[in-house]
Amino acid sequence: MRKMLLAAGVLMLSFNAQAAQDAEAVYARACAACHNGQLPMAPQKGDKAAWEPRLAKGMDVLVQSVTNGLGAMPPRGLCMDCTAEDYQAVIELMTK
Predict the structure, then answer these.
(1) Cα Dmax for the chain
(2) Strand pairing partners for 70?
(3) Which domains are present in the chain?
(4) Torsion angle of the four alpha carbons 64, 50, 96, 30, in this order, in degrees rounded to the nearest 10
């Protein structure tokens, strides 16, 4: 019985390693208001030149910036139910 519970726990953890939410839906709900050009200091979705220096810092730094807030961006970037994996998926979406 313990082995089955342990296996189930490990399996559940492996599911949590993936983004739980659709990146496009999160972007539309929580990010688009600022990253569609409403705030000039927020890099726009698809603006590779604006994202390049940010991406150079590494994905972990970008996810941490969203989580903690940076400049005009509030902590968690208006997505209170997002995980780090969700943030990474949305960042990847915005940088394409």
Answers:
(1) 57
(2) 73
(3) 20-94 (1.10.760.10)
(4) 50
**How far, rounded to the nearest angstrom, does the alpha carbon of residue 43 sit from its chain's CA centroid?**
14
- For residues 91 and 23, what is the distance between their CA atoms, to the nearest angstrom? 9
Closest among 58, 44, 54 to 94, alpha carbons compared = 44
Tens of pLDDT, residue by residue over 16-47, are 456 789 999 999 999 999 999 989 999 999 99
Q: How far apart are the first and last CA of the chain?
A: 47
- Report how far residue 26's alpha carbon sits from residue 33's, in angstroms, rounded to the nearest whole number: 11
What the block records as the tokens of 16 is: 């949590």
What would the pLDDT profile of 4-19 be if each residue is shown by its tens digit?
Answer: 444 444 444 444 456 7
Residue 20 amino acid letter: A
Q: Which residue in this structure is represented by tokens 């940010």?
A: 54
Q: Read off the amino acid at residue 45.
A: K
Residues in the chain: 96
